[in-house]
Write a structure and sequence with these properties.
The chain has 212 residues and is of the alpha/beta class. It is built from eight helices and eight strands; from the N terminus they run E-H-E-H-E-H-E-H-H-E-H-E-H-E-E-H. An eight-stranded mixed β-sheet has the order 1-4-3-2-5-6-7-8, with helices on one face. Helix 2 packs parallel to helix 8 and helix 7 crosses helix 8. The protein is globular. The chain starts with a strand and ends in an 8-residue tail after the last helix. The structure holds glycinamide ribonucleotide. The site of glycinamide ribonucleotide has 17 residues, from helix 2, strand 6 and helix 8.
Length: 212
């Protein structure tokens, strides 16, 4: 485990002491993580208090550091047992967990500590093109190869199976003739940036998402 920055009461200046603390789990580039951090910083309705990753060189760490958000890498064995990750979430008073391009399995003890308070985003219209090994561009390649006319995003609760928890929100976009995986990924990312922070905000505030 390596904690890159630690600021006690980190969020007090942004959302106030009563605002809920969000942790983001991410494995890669982290554009969604950055978008979510910026959204809550502007709105002040909650605070991204911690970013956690399973990849030591994930670019999301650079983004979090640049934005002054504490971020921490845990080794594979820590993600398998979950103990150290869970105690770190507790130390930072985390109320809600958001997966944003997180590619490891979440251990049961962490899942059980956050019932209905842990959500994931997937870049397809689940149950299509989901499951183990389906992430990022692999999803878009499969969507294009299968000749689908539309794709989209699914925001769902996290459970012990990849991409299978209860669906909270789906938003669609077209798959255009001649689309490359990169072009489709851009269209999907735009949907993610628009909807994911709003859905998180509603759930953190205990509201039913209005984007069903
Ligand atoms: C996002 O498109 C997200 O939906 C996807 O990874 C990308 C991460 O992008 N997640 C999965 O495929 C999960 N199965 P980002 O690192 O730029 O936020």
């Amino acid at each position: 485990m390596h904690l890159f920055a630690h600021f006690s009461r980190f969020c007090a200046g942004f959302g106030g002491l009563m605002s809920k603390n969000i942790a983001i789990f991410a494995s890669g580039n982290g554009t969604n993580a950055e978008n979510i951090i910026r959204y809550f910083r502007e709105k002040g309705s909650a605070c991204v208090a911690l970013v956690l990753t399973n990849r030591q060189n994930a670019f999301v760490l650079e983004r979090a550091k640049g934005l002054g958000v504490p971020c921490v890498w845990f080794a594979k064995s820590d993600w398998e047992s979950g103990e150290l990750v869970l105690s770190t979430l507790r130390e930072h008073d985390i109320d809600f967990v958001v997966l944003a391009g997180f590619l490891a399995r979440v251990p049961d003890n962490i899942l059980h500590a956050y019932p209905n308070k842990m959500i994931n985003i997937h870049p397809s219209l689940l149950p299509k093109f989901g499951g183990k090994g389906m992430y990022g561009d692999r999803v878009h390649e499969a969507v294009i190869a299968s000749g689908e006319k539309e794709s989209g995003i699914t925001i769902h609760y996290t459970n012990e199976h990849y991409d299978e928890g209860g669906i909270i929100c789906q938003q669609k976009c077209p798959v255009l003739p001649g689309d490359t995986p990169e072009e489709l990924a851009q269209r999907i990312h735009r949907l993610e940036y628009e909807y994911y922070p709003k859905v998180i905000e509603e759930l953190v505030e205990g509201l039913s998402p209005s984007y069903l």
